[in-house]
Amino acid sequence: MSGTTRVLDLRRLHKVLSSGPITILTHHNPDPDALASGEGLAYLIQTLWGLEVRRVYSGIVARAENMAVLAHLTPGWELISAPDEIASESLIILVDTQPGAGNNLLPASIIPSAVFDHHQPIRLRVDQVPYVDLRPELGAASTLIYLYLEAAGLSLHSRLATALFYGIKTDTNGLSRGTTHEDELTYVSLLKHVDRELLRKVEHIKKSATFYSSIAHGIQNTMVYGSAVLSLLGDMHRPDFAAELADYLIQLEGTRGVFCMGRYQEAWQLSVRTVLLGQDAGLLIQQLIVDIGQGGGHGTMAGGQIPDDAVDENVLKTMVQQRFLVMMEEGETAGIPLITLGS
Question: Which of 6, 101, 147, 316 has the fewest beta carbons under 10 Å from its own?
Fold first, then answer.
């Protein structure tokens, strides 16, 4: 393979990117880790080498905390809706995603110049990328980018430090899931540079009435089968709501795994959460949607998408429910939920 996983070679990265300009692209509907890691990489490239960098994302940023990150911590990102909005002469870097993952705007015909990610599975198309650093053992892409900033000897301004800190905090649930020693060291190193007022604005952002009504609807559609919790929604008001609901449901006492699915526009959005030292969420979601969709993740959290026209809705819901319960070793209770949370 032309790129090598687990590298940190600033000189080679500069050689790959030196012809610029550069566009950093992350996954659809970016979360705090994606926004922060892209912001950190842009700061590295601009500060160290003086290259022109543009940061773009697709989809929507609608979760209250994510909107606050975009507004207060990473305001430089631009929303695009089609690949042709990226300048044809630009070198593309993928952050927190990979070519062929199905969750970014990069066409199959375009090979990015660099990829930085921490998700499983490692996609076959990364073999063609000149510079690759994939570390699925890390809990956050923000940790990976901090390692580059540290190696370059760059001091961070408080806004960027706060963004990276919050990116790690959200992706690892405050270091309680899927972390390594590097995540922990980075988290502690960033903490002393955090702007507490900015962090407060993000973490204590007010939520809309739609959020609460959606949570109520999600709970009404949640069933508990032993240690497995399942919520099969219909249409959602935003694509990342299944993930937000899963974050709440994994806290239910006695739960080892959560699967949430809802439709947004032309695709079903899926989210899986598992407990620490339980089943690997990334592997679980790949088995859930094999042959009908794309997904990935790591440790205790994963997500995926299934095209709306891939399978009949009723067939799809029955199929993923049965697969999930069997994988959670609750298959014998598939027809009889022990608890329906909304009842």
Answer: 6
pTM of the full structure: 0.88
Q: Contact 1/126 with Cβ under 8 angstroms?
A: yes
Q: Are strands 257-264 and 228-235 parallel, antiparallel or unpaired?
A: parallel
Question: What are residue 34's DSSP bridge partners?
Answer: none
Residues 53 and 119 in one domain: yes
CA-based nearest residue to 300, from 339, 338, 243: 243
The CB density around residue 197, as the number of other CB atoms within 10 Å, is: 10
Contact assessment for residue 194 and residue 222, using Cβ atoms and an 8 Å cutoff = no
For residue 141, the number of C-alpha atoms closer than 13 Å in the C-beta half-sphere is: 29
| % residues pLDDT > 90 (the chain) | 76
pLDDT tens digits, one per residue of 177-192: 778 999 999 999 999 9
Phi, psi (rounded to 5 degrees) for 71: -75, -40
Same domain, 194 and 232: no
Residues in the chain: 343
Q: Tell me, letter by letter, the H, E, C secondary structure of 45-76.
A: HHHHHCCCEEEEECCCCCCHHHHHHHHHCCCC
80: left (phi over 0), alpha (psi -120 to 50) or beta: beta
Q: How far apart are alpha carbons 137 and 77 in whole angstroms?
A: 27
Torsion angle of C-alpha atoms 68, 69, 73, 78, degrees rounded to 10: -100
257-273 confidence digits (pLDDT tens): 999 999 999 999 999 99
Residue 57 to residue 29: CA distance in whole angstroms? 7
Question: Which domain does 80 fall in, by range?
Answer: 10-203
The total number of structural domains that make up the chain: 2
